[in-house]
Amino acid sequence: MKQFPGIIRNRKTHRAGSIIVLLILLLLSMPLLSNTPRIYAANPAASQHPLQKVTTTGPGVYYGVNVEDLSPTNFSTLTQFETDAQKPVALVMFFTNWGEPDPTNSQFNPALMTAIRNHGSIPMITWDPWAYGKGAHQPTYSLTNIIAGNFDTYITQFAQAAQAWGYPFFIRFAQEMNANWYPWGLGAKGMNNKAVDYRNAWIHIHNIFTTVGATNVSWAWTPASWDGEGAIYQHLYPGDSYVDWVGLSGYNWAGSPSTWQTFSQIFKHSLGYLSAITTKPVFIAETASNEAGGSKANWITDVYDTQVPTHFPQIKAIIWYNRATKSQWWIESSVSATQAFAAAIQNPLYASNQFGSITTSPIPPLS
Q: Is 61-351 CATH 3.40.140.80?
């Protein structure tokens, strides 16, 4: 018999020693469960995209969403999205229009902001100078009127309320300014907008916020993603002193008359234009895919599994536009799309709702 060091060879101790040896061998033969990661799948028997991916990457991208009908006392649309995605969001984007029929709906909403923060998420206000639903020709909200001070009382009240609230958040002012479907857009019919007007309106508003001490705002500048817009982006950009993050809106419209586009086809050139302008953190402010013309599930998987992590590591936040429109943007447009999104977003690269205590402003990228 092989002798084990430390075992005393007498009748009383030999039995005890044998028991100890057996226990040691048993322990050595057991798998190290404490060091084995547990991987959970979302109904793997039924899912085409089980949640079984393991990566060593830590959080590096804020994962966000825009949903409809959000209020301080009703998070049902957000809750439904997070249930279907099987992961809470880091960013919640919502729209506030200057020209709401009920003026109180145009004001800074501290109750909603607090509810989002208590959820562990960072609010992003897309702040639009127009009356929603009344088209792009709205002379009341012209850029020249903003520059002239016609809205200074409203802007100042909004800035003071933001300063009083005190916590970090994003303002995404007058997005997609290179397009023609908003009153502030370069191509808006009858509005005679110029790039210099947009820049000056932005700077005018930013200066008011600075004056009242609303330094908790991170300013997000987000044109529409179109090829060939590099020079236009440069002319519209207010400057690094007035912008904290830069981003893009872009969709896979698909279906007639549009054609199916990959995430790379939508954003690659425009991301290059941004990098030529600034080194500010980059994000995708709005994106989604239609179902028509291809596999939406595969499109989603490609975005979150391949494009963002591998091909576009400069993207530090991405917001899904989850609205039930005829273009079928919401992830629930099909079972396969829902499952694909839920699977891909589990990657720990995408940060969840862990920002209820954030105090840093401007809001920093995660990596």
A: no
